[in-house]
Amino acid sequence: MSPSNGANGNGNHPENDATRVPGEVRGLLDSSTHDEDRLVAAVKEYTAAVESGRRPNRQEFLAQYADIATELSSCLNSLNFVQAAAAQLPGSDAASQIQKTSEELNTDMAAKPLGDFKLVREIGRGGMGVVYEAVQLSLGRRVAVKVLSLAAALDSRHLQRFKNEAQAAAQLHHTNIVPVYQVGCERSVHFYAMQLIDGQTLADVVRDLRRLAGKTPLRRDATAGGSANGANGKANGAKRIENLDDLPMPMAANNAPLSTQVANLSVMHSDKRHSFFRSVATLGLQAAEALDYAHRLGVVHRDIKPANLMLDVRGNLWITDFGLAQFYAADSGLTQTGDVVGTYRYMSPEQASGRAVVLDQRTDIYSLGVTLYELLTLERAVPGTTREELLNQIANVDPQHPREFDKAIPQELDTILMKAIAKEPADRYPSASALAEDLRRFLEDQPILARPPSTLDKAIKWTKRHRAITLSTMAILLVIAAGLLITTLFIARAQSHTNDALKREQENFRQARQAVDFFTNVANKDMENQVPGKFQSVRKEMLEASLAYYQSFIEQRKGDRTLEADLNAASAHVASILAALIAGEDYYRIASGLTLMQSRNIQAELKLTDPQKTKIFSLEAATPIEGPRLEAIIAPLTSEQRSEKLAAMEAETERAIADILSPDQVDRLHQLARQWRGPTAFSDTDVVAALALTREQKDQIRLIQNEQPPQPAPPTRPSTQTGTQPSDADRPPPRGPDQGQRGGFRQVDFRAFNAEKVARIVALLTPEQADRWQELIGAPFEGQFPNPFQRGGRGGGPGGRGRGGPGGFPGDRGPG
Amino acid sequence: MAVEPQALLQQARGGKEGALGALFESYTRYLTLLARLQIGRRIQGKVDEGDIVQETFLEAHRQFPQFRGTTEAELISWLRRILAGQLALVVRRYIGTKGRDIRLEMDLAAELDNSANALDGALAASYSTPSQHASRREQAVLLADALGELSEDYREVIILRHLEALPFAEVAKRMNRSEDSVQKLWVRSLAALRNSLGGVA
Q1: Residue A14: which of B118, B181, B195 has the nearest Cβ?
Q2: Residue A639: phi, psi to the nearest 5?
Q3: CB within 8 Å of A783: residues ≥ 6 apart
Q4: In this predicted model, what pLDDT tens digit does every residue of B28-75 receive, in sequence order?
Q5: Which of A108, A237, A485, A751 is at 20 to 30 A from A199, Cα to Cα?
């Protein structure tokens, strides 16, 4: 650790400072502490004056402190040198400089042929570079050449990826995909050549149709402003691009005021509405088929948007820029330009959140859905002009139904698009061919396969998005629903076996079954890409309850062969998920010890030797402890496979740790981990077993675990009080004295909050259990536990898992 | 610096042996400081800025043939961009995202520019004659070098107070000291900095 550290080590106490002071300065410091205090006061006074906008006259200021003027003067010199005035630095932005260089380069480019290609004129400009109309000299044909901006070409890793992707894209041969002729590099400029399409992009089409419909142009994105016109100032003969966020790569050789295709569409749009809707569906069908073809070859586009879909004069649709989307990221200098902001508009939620491990074909389905939505309604599916607005919209706001804009839009088309743009990938069409199939059915007036979401679907969606509020109440609802079932069944039994009663019983059963399926589903859905996380204990309880109810259903329905088999399958499924969940928790418990051992304080407590530290560090780095790395491993597995895999990983990690640490160190680590985890440790399978917790205790503990901290709160003890306040105040909380959260201002004092929870839980235990718990946690750790690392909003670390944990990094965030 | 960076750059272009290494070498502290300003907030105590800077140099070495700038300013911003890429790699490793995260890289590059601006800005205030203005970038490097000459505590207090712009109370917390002792440390550090800046300040 070079310059940053050392601040936390020992030997930093004030009395040691004098030994480090350079000779010249020591003289002054030796004189008296009084002088030094005056010096501090003087420099602070000077700083305050400068910060408040006055710059005191230096001579006068020094004169006030004549006795320490020499020292003060040298401090002020340094201060001036260092004083932050970040705003005053013009044009220092690296992005603009690189941008400028690429401007020059691109101008230069037009003069000389680029390999086999003679550039004729610029026809478009966007985030990744400039598109030229060009002539391929060897074949004498007109082509479009996209030159990547120098900035984009800077990073060799990205470059290699670009080449791979572009070459994969070059293998795509489909009537609706713009063919890539060549990918090349000349004079260290990277470019690719593709077919010149005589037409325009859907972004242009939407804009023109809006104009014709008498609507104002859609607002360009806020940040698009200056750079747009500045950068395009040199654009020649090419059509001006008005809407920068949709800044297309129009390989258009078309200057007509209104292209034929728009004219055709517009007639339909105004007069023959039905034909217009069918045209949109036809274009969508072509795009979906092209995407399906590419997906089958393993190529995901990732950047489907109106600007990347071209409509030629014959009304055919072409997808361009295959496989290039991820290259945008290489060009970080574009952060501030409208191109990237505009690109957000069409990003799928999983893409925009940046959390998806692998983006699959469903990201393209979403983006195509949004694109078609805009073409159909001529309105934004995702409104907003800034990145923040867009990201919020994408993550949290369901778009309006197209029919809310226009009642004439067929319900089927509305349903198809809404399914395509569902927030959850699992709710979308599973493949582009499924989307194509529904569009075809619509065009052939057959019933489509997508269904508008049922009330149950909506309920699931709602609960998923408001999981924090609902999951803890869900278990209670489940109990009520199932309780209702049992009651009604008894009533039905008690009544005579009339047809009527039988029918009612069956209906009751169906409803109850649906309720249990629903809750099971909610609990399970999370498991799809789930690793141990928040509300795990609730989920576990729910699954256990579901399992019990399935068992009772099976009991009730004995003799009904089909139903029995069905129920048995459902029950086995829940059981296996439950097993995987427990395996995941066990694994996480072991693996998180590695995270804990990255802390110096813990290393010191365990008396790790340097070789041990090194080994632990590499082991931690190599172990997928949680988050996407772990998801990537377990996501493709079935529940049964997950249980096995996680159990294997747990054993492996445990063994690896035991290879490095001594048995005593391992024991102490477990103790420390339990102290660190606080109230959540009471859900650990080993703790539950060791304490032999009763059902009632587990329920009470869970309630305490799930209590939310008061927000916002000053760092004082929260006053969530119940009747279970620890009676014996003698028992110390199993942590060292609270040292205050490191650097956390305005933050909830999780440390105290958790310590209080633990104390209350301990108060629930029998004396024997409490003693056993003391053995499990050992001597209280006096040092500071590390802050759980803030993992990209996943609510990662233990302790306050799911509720933010005891502070992230100082200043990074806060409840306010 | 014995040879002017501009001259070194020319020599490196010309393929002179060792010139590129010497050129990069002279930005070690500058890049280390930038890396620290970024990393400090993200992956406390888990990575070594020195390693990241080494990786950055390796990468820069590979990419040098594509570098087209001629001024030190261009060189620095180019190095910074490569550093952003390396930082993204490291951050991603610790956040555990294997896939590409567009936002992370964009955010990192933007933050890095901010850090660089803070560093530059620290120098802008008192130096605004034209010739000094022209070499402001170089002075950012000089500040980093001067800070590198200081003892750890001295460097830390300047970085926290002036480059991370934290209030004294917060600096004190981070350094596990009393506010009073941090302020004294600060003043001493300023005095010491004056020394290591030599003729510059």
Answers
A1: B181
A2: -60, -40
A3: A601, A602, A604, A605, A736
A4: 888 888 887 766 555 556 677 788 888 888 888 888 888 888 777 778
A5: A108
Helix, strand, coil share of chain A (percent; to 5): 60, 5, 35
Could you tell me the two tokens for A465?
Answer: 């998005």
Cα radius of gyration (chain B): 18
Torsion sign (Cα): A15, A19, A25, A29:
positive
- Residue A322, sorted as left (phi over 0), alpha (psi -120 to 50) or beta, turns out to be beta
Which tokens belong to A434?
A: 């499924």
Q: Does the distance separating the beta carbons of A809 and B105 come in below 8 Å?
A: no
CB A279 within 8 A of CB A331: no
Query: Is A1 in contact with B120 (Cβ distance < 8 A)?
Result: no
Searching chain B, which residue's CA lies closest to the CA of residue A92?
B117
The verdict on a CB contact (< 8 Å) between B174 and A7 is yes
- Model confidence pLDDT, tens digit, residues A802-816: 333 333 233 333 333
Q: Is A332 on the interface with B (CB under 8 A)?
A: yes
Which residues are CB-neighbours of A634 under 8 A, at least 6 positions away? A531, A584, A642, A645, A646
Task: With a cut of 90, say whether residue A286 has pLDDT above it.
Answer: yes
Nearest-by-Cβ selection for B175 from A12, A75, A82: A12
pLDDT at A536 over 80: no
Give the alpha-carbon dihedral of A637, A638, A643, A645, to 10 degrees. Answer: -20
Residue A317 three-state SS: strand
Residues 6+ apart with CB under 8 A from A225: A338
Nearest partner of B163 among A4, A90, A52, A333, judged by Cα = A4
Q: Taking Cα atoms as reference points, which of A77, A89, A93, A3 lies closest to residue A43?
A: A77
Cα A129 → chain centroid: 28
User: How does DSSP assign B57-126, residue by residue?
Assistant: HHHHHHHGGG----SHHHHHHHHHHHHHHHHHHHHHHHHT--S--HHHHHHHHHHHHHHHHHHHHHHHTT
Contact A348, A374 (CB under 8 A): no
Find the catalytic residue in A204, A221, A303, A749.
A303
Q: What are all long-range contacts of B171-174, with beta carbons under 8 Å and residues at least 24 apart? A: B173/A742, B173/A743, B173/A810, B174/A7, B174/A742, B174/A743, B174/A810
**Cross-strand partners of A331:** none
User: What is the ipTM for the molecules in this complex?
Assistant: 0.72
Encode pLDDT of A240-252 as tens digits. 323 333 333 333 3
Cis peptide preceding A349, ω within 30 of 0: no
Whole-structure pTM value: 0.39
Whether A638 contacts A646, CB under 8 Å? no
